[in-house]
Amino acid sequence: MSTDKLQTPEEIIPFLSYLSLRDTHRELLKRRREEQDNENTSLWDDVKDFLQRGEAAGAFLDIDEERQGAQNLLDYWHNQLYHAGLEGPEAILAEFDPTTQPEIPDSRCPYIGLDAFNESNFHLFFGRSQLIEDLMRQVTVNRLVAAIGPSGSGKSSVVLAGLLPRLKKGDLPGSALWHYYPTIVPGSAPLARLARLLQPETAATEEWVPDQIEAFRENSEHLVNLIDQSNPNPAILTIDQFEETFTLCHDEEERRAFLDNILRLVSSRGQRHLVILTMRVDYESYLNKVPLFQSLFEQGQVRVAAMNGKELWEAIEKPADLVGLKFEEGLIDALVREIVGEPAALPLLQFTLLQLWDNRERNRVTWETYRRLGGVMQALANTADHVYNTLLPEEQVTARRILLRIVQPSAGLEFTRSRVPRRVLYQSGEANDRIDRVLEKLIQARLVRLTKGATPIDDQIEIAHEALVRNWPRLGEWLEEAAVSLRQRQRLLAQAEHWDRLGRDDGALLRGGLLADALQYDDLSPLESEFVKASEEAKAAEEREKERIRQRELEQAKALAQEQIRVAQAERERADARKREAVALQQRTEALELAARRNRLFNIALLVTLGLAVGAIFLFVQANRQQADKIAALNSEATAVAAQSTAVAAQSMAEAGQSTAVVAQSMAEAGQSTAVAGLEIATVQIATSEAFNVARSTEVAKSEETAVASTATAQFVEALNAQMTATAQVTPSRASGSLSQSAPTATPSIQELMDQYALDAQLKAIVRERDNATMLYITGGTFAFGTDDDDRGSAVTLNSFYIDQAEVTVRRYAGFLNAIGSYRRNCDGGYCVFTGVETLYTSLLNNLGTYEARPSYETTPVNQVSWAGAAAYCEWVGGRLPTEAEWEYAARGLDGRIYPWGNTPEPNSLLANYNISAGRAIFNQVFAPFETVNALPDGASPFGVYAMSGGVMEWVEDWYSEDAYADPDTNGAAYADNSSGERVLRGGFWNSAAADIRTTSRFHLDPELTSPSLDAEVYWGVGFRCVRDVTN
Fold first, then answer.
1. Interval 8-41: pLDDT, tens
2. Domain 128-306 carries which CATH code?
3. CA–CA gap between residue 538 and residue 511 (Å, rounded)
4. Assigned CATH topology for domain 753-806+878-1015+1024-1029
């Protein structure tokens, strides 16, 4: 170009954007530094051309900041021309001309919405240059390369539109010659996907695919052999959404064969074949089941993090510059500020950009449109609501059914999309044309994606992105309402397929509540219909067999009842005989009493006669004293008579003693009669109770209760006889005049007391009504609470109470959350617990408002619980948290033991779940540390309470104080001074050393959970158990 000739206005091609003007300016600067020659006419001609195009660009620039920047660049090069002694254009930016705004065709759309970028639109993919370089480096050193990140982080896009185009272009030595297979997703049948990928054009699908699936199952090197046979160069196998291998494939054998073939491919000694994967990070734990694959995966993984501000600017602005699209001043800044740092917001950004493009004014995106959409975080939800609200009422029902059919629960973690053939949607019973009409509207709104099939009914329908599930509240509400139904629906299909694979084995059919639920569905597939019908027939056959068995058992019961009636009748006859014997005995006793009274009267009369005789003799002697001869004779006679009378009196006294003995015997027999009378009363009571029971029982029950009553009567008589015999043996003797003295009662030892308390704990245990948890009875007592010097503590006296035998489990706490409906604000205004949404360090999963335990961890202790979350649960089940004294007493009893099981042996893995390798942290484990709550019965406390050492620390009622042991409440009340701001925990946890799981070990934490990122590891080992007052 001549230095003295400038272009005419018609020849000038203006810069259409400030960005293109700035880029040309930078190129000129680079050339200026490299050439350093003022005589270089070519450079200066290009500068003049730049100035003319820059002047003309003013007509297209209406943003003040861009116009000022453009004018500064023009001034710079105008000065450079002047210093070089050259003349040029005036370099004055033209005025903005609204008529210069070009209309951009719809076909040049620079944004893709909820779709992932791929090789067909890689020229629109910006902002991930550093991540692509990281993946390129992994390709050079590893043969299994994985992009792993959250849903919506751009994993698929960076591989399909970033890494693969670079490799195909030859950015790595020889990579342009590699063979690149089309990308696959595993789906529910990954081996079939692999077989179709490698199918030769000449092979028939119906023969090739089944043969290759069988070969993959039998030979883990079959994939290597197929690829080596058809490729002389290294091959690249790309698998998108690799998590479907675990979430959609339910055949364990097929999954194992798929993974084994991939492992062999990346480990083969021949060609350096590569496998490139994308996977969601929340499914990474599934790889624990395949350790060898996991090791290679971890070596070749690249984490896809959130884009920074600069990268987001590039992703927005550079595609727009390619087509001349402009944003009003400050709008790009607003877009970046709204989503920077959000790892899953890229689909929302692309969807918003697509909506802004659709609503552009010629070549401009305006603030008005942005505000109308509601910004990045609301654009998707607002658009979805608008589409739904424009549907007819019956179409809204169809839309809801379609969306709920293509969304499924994924192993309890969250909801994910599922690909469903159109023919499955037709099976709902609705008109096919209405289904097609609604589908078309959802597809046009880019909410649903359609992949063409061999025929229209084979078209695959799926949700455009999981972002719609997370960010459209209406769909979220539907999913919460249908969460249980969706999981049951998916489980029904899996069960039907499992039944079919087992050769339609009757053992795999539905029963009970599962069958009742399946009968409610009106959109069963043919396989599901056959499965449910077979289950109904099996149920009917089982009921017929149960009725036959019931009839046989009824006949046997009748025969047994008749036999029991016969035995009972015999027992009753024997009881009547014993009753008659008791009456006869009573009559004999009464006769003996009458005889004893008669003997007493006779003896009295005899004594009176004897007294009169003696008196007469005395008078006779006094009257005839004068006659001496007669006196001697009379004295001799009187002496003889007196001797005879004395003998008679002695005989009378002996007879009186005999009468007394007879009276004593009569009294004893009278006592026996009284006992017999008591027996009769008891027998009458038994008979009355028997009559009542007979009136209310079945025939079988009548005979059983009659037999029991007769047996009880016999036992009562035997016990009465034994008691009378024992009483007779200890009756004091009148001759001795003394009573036998009973031996003093011995004071039981502590061990004897604890043995009795342990027995009472089990015998008086209760099962809590609301959660069916067992609570042991803890007999109150006085014990040494706490220890300052490992020798002695303070005496504390407790009333009896109940305590949970085991810690509260994940399953029970999930039931509590499902009952109260939430967990983030329902416990004293804060978190009750952290779920799987907040942290990986828990087995408590949150499925959009439905809570459940991670499979196989239902009966492990719940963890990550706040103090208020523990207290709220205990109140819910009619209890409370234990005081520190109650907890310690339940752990150590009366004997002040060091560990719940005693002072010896030292802790081991059969007694407590604790850190055996003391001093070495094991935080690399997530769920492995937790045992089931009743797994270690040998480590139970003296009352039989499980896991009071290790496992999880347990909240108690008390506020924390360092000197709480120094002067505790003698009644064991909770420490109420909250000045420390922390609550007490007891028992140690799975990562505690042996010294920290003693019965007196104390811990303290803030009672509130506030930040999942900060608190999750701190409260990893925090759980609880409840107590209840006996008076309740």
1. 555 678 887 787 888 899 999 988 888 765 567 7
2. 3.40.50.300
3. 9
4. paralog of FGE (formylglycine-generating enzyme) (3.90.1580)
Per the CB < 8 A criterion, the answer to whether 306 and 128 are in contact is no
Q: How confident is the model at residue 418 (pLDDT cuts 50, 70, 90)?
A: confident
Higher per-residue pLDDT: 944 or 670: 944
Among the listed ranges 751-760, 861-870, 927-936, 964-973, which one has the minimum average pLDDT value? 927-936
Task: Take residue 199 and report the two structure tokens written for it.
Answer: 């199918």
Name the one residue in this structure whose structure tokens are 């249908």. Answer: 482
Neighbours of 902 (CB within 10 A): 14
Q: Please answer whether residues 999 and 975 qualify as being in contact, where contact means their C-beta atoms are separated by less than 8 angstroms.
A: no
Strand partners, 361: 364
Instruction: Tell me the C-alpha distance between 431 and 395, whole Å.
Output: 11
By the 8 A CB rule, do 932 and 811 touch? no
Note the pLDDT tens digit of each residue in 365-381: 888 888 888 888 788 88
CA distance 339 to 653: 123
Q: What is the pLDDT of residues 551-590, one digit of tens each?
A: 888 888 788 878 888 888 888 888 888 888 888 888 777 7
Half-sphere exposure of 750 (CA within 13 A, CB side): 11
* DSSP secondary structure letters along 223-254: HHHHHHHH-SS-EEEEESSTTHHHHT---HHH
Collect all residues with Cβ–Cβ distance below 8 Å to 58 and sequence separation of at least 6.
67, 70, 93, 94, 95, 96
Tokens for 484, please give them: 């249980």
* Average pLDDT over every residue of 462-469: 79
List, in sequence order, every beta strand (DSSP E) within 680-821: 766-767, 774-778, 781-785, 794-798, 801-804
What is the per-residue burial (b if ≥16 Cβ within 10 Å, else e) of 918-941? eeeeeeeeebebbbbbebbeebbb
Closest alpha carbon to 914 in 897, 939, 880: 939
Summarised one tens digit per residue, pLDDT across range 307-355 is 888 999 999 999 998 888 888 888 899 899 888 877 667 888 888 899 8
Domain residue spans of the chain: 9-100, 128-306, 530-717, 753-806+878-1015+1024-1029
Pairing of strands 1027-1029, 326-327: unpaired
The CA distance from 787 to 793, in Å, is 4
Quick check: 406 and 462 in contact, CB under 8 A?
Answer: yes
Based on DSSP, count helices (H) and strands (E) in the chain, helices before strands: 32, 24
Joined together, the tokens standing for residue 874 give 């205990």
Question: Which has the higher per-residue pLDDT, 1023 or 560?
Answer: 1023
pTM over 0.85: no
Contact at 8 Å (CB) between 661 and 520?
no
235 CB contacts (<8 Å, ≥6 apart)?
178, 179, 180, 181, 227, 271, 273, 274
Backbone region of residue 86 per phi and psi (left: phi > 0; alpha: psi in -120 to 50; beta: other values): beta
Q: Which of 116-120, 131-135, 253-257 has the lowest mean pLDDT?
A: 116-120
374/961 Cα distance (integer angstroms): 52
What long-range pairs does 4-7 form, CB within 8 A, spacing at least 24? 4/87, 6/48, 6/52, 6/88, 6/89, 7/49, 7/52
- The answer to whether the CB of 964 falls within 8 A of the CB of 975 is yes
1022 burial class (0-12, 13-18, 19+ CB within 10 angstroms)? Answer: buried
3-state secondary structure of 802: strand
Close Cβ partners of 608 (under 8 Å, ≥ 6 residues apart): none
Confidence of residue 493 (pLDDT cuts 50, 70, 90): confident
Cite the beta strand spans of 848-952 per DSSP E.
850-853
- Could you give the C-alpha distances from 743 to 729, 740, 746, in angstroms and in order? 16, 10, 9
First to last CA, the chain: 102
What CA–CA distances, in Å, run from 811 to 771, 879, 913?
10, 18, 20
